[in-house]
Amino acid sequence: MTDRLTAVFAALADPVRRDIVARLAGGDATVNELAKPYQISVQAVSKHLKVLETAGLVSRRRDAQRRPCHLEAEVFDLMTKWIERYRRAAEERHSRLDAVLACMHTEPSPNTGPDHTGAAS
User: Fold this and answer.
1) ∠ CA 14-17-22, rounded to 5°
2) Reduced to 3 states, what is the DSSP secondary structure of residue 93?
């Protein structure tokens, strides 16, 4: 699982690849369709797609003469489970800190209380 996650996160480290994934979330597209908004060649977009394919984020299939790219959403389930585990741990630490701070706030300070006037004896 870790090796696959490493490949997925490495693939998503590039902003062009993240944008391609976001665009494919709206539906399948060909390499030429994906390359249109970029100031890079179709070959460069193909290389980005190859990285996404290797990570398991994208697949290509043959549809008559087209070869549309498809986003493999189940990979995001793997990422979500990994992120969720650490999110829960962080929330638990935050809750414990909140409890400690709440106790500190409600406990009287040693310099305050009914017998302490603040005046020198």
Assistant:
1) 125
2) helix
Between 2-11 and 42-54, two packed helices, what is the crossing angle to 10 degrees?
A: 160
- The greatest distance separating any two alpha carbons of the chain, rounded to the nearest whole angstrom, comes to 96
CA 7, CA 71: separation in Å to the nearest integer? 15
Question: What kind and span of H or E run contains 69?
Answer: strand 69-71
What do you get for the CA distance between the two ends of the chain, in Å? Answer: 69
Q: Can you list the domains of the chain with their CATH numbers?
A: 2-72 (1.10.10.10)
Lookup: tokens for 81: 């489970």
User: What is the full DSSP assignment across 30-50?
Assistant: -HHHHHTTSSS-HHHHHHHHH
**pTM (predicted TM-score):** 0.68
Residue 60, classed as helix, strand or coil, is strand
Write the pLDDT tens digit of every residue in 55-94: 999 999 887 778 899 999 888 888 888 889 888 888 888 8
